[in-house]
Amino acid sequence: xxxxxxxxxxxxxxxxIRDIVRxxxxxxxxxxxxxxxxxxxxxxxxEEISTMPGxxxxxxxxxxxxxxxxxxxxxxxxxxxxxxxxxxxDPVGSPAFMEEGIVQTAIRALKKExxxxxIGDVCLCQYTSHGHxxxxxxxxxxxxxxxxxxxxxILNDPSLKYLAKTAxxxxxxxxxxxxxxxxxxxxxxxxxxxxxxxxYEDVMIMSYSAKFASSFxxxxxxxxxxxxxxxxxxxxxxxxxxxxxxxxxCELDVVExxxxxxxxxxxxxxDIIKTVKEDFNLPLVSYNVSGExxxxxxxxxxxxxxxxxxxxxxxxIKRAGADLIITYFxxxxxxxx
Length: 337
Ligand code: PBG
Fold this sequence. Notes:
By secondary structure, the protein is α/β, with parallel strands linked by helices. Helix content is 37%, strand content 18%.
């Protein structure tokens, strides 16, 4: 059977019909809002992030207030990022795992004042003096053992201990989920073991499994002051060209004990989201990153696009297979869903 018996447009006749045949729906509970807490800010001192219009760095009080407002509109989960005082940063990222660290303090406050599912981003880059996600060794010029691009080697195994300490400190503060975003090999296993040893066997691991070395993180690095001083992240984050390698990363994370997988960024990697969804049975998260937000916001500001582009792009991430979406558009979507 084909045209004129078959007429696809019957299914699009009016909004009532379109509503009942719609295949993909975004729900408020699909959204995870990324929030930045900055150490040293006092109540009322939120700072707008210049590269991410409408997004702010918050003091503890203001961030918690904002989280409560979003919760009242239907938000269910939040991922917490911290920006420590510049002078506390050191080569191992100590402010990432201090009991009184900015993330730990924010998590405790959120836990006390809201019912949100609280996720801690576990990484060292905002906290290390050199801005890398793990510990580093810098080679002297001309060292014959140097086979790096730029003289900076990121030390995998020595970093695991500090990432695990960070995860445990967040669990202690009340995080429901820890989300390692560093891309060191073996970190999911190291974190799972450390959590279990401290009796946090119920705390989940949302692994940034397939995290690509993306230029779309640029506004985040400005927001969180976490750009590497020397070198880049290409020796630990994935090559944007590699889809099959993303599957290997996910396989390893499953074996190491991840509870949820993540693909990041989202829009330029919809094919990866679709494949991971088909191949694995874990909840799948995708991170609609800072550059994806800023790109659309800039186009709307210029009048090149309308606000409808927000819903359409988020819907495409869900349609590709994401169960949960980390997005700076969460506040907008809570008002429009
Ligand atoms: C830290 C981290 C980054 C993001 C989340 N965690 C930046 C990076 O890897 O350089 C990016 C988030 C965003 O762009 O919104 N490792």
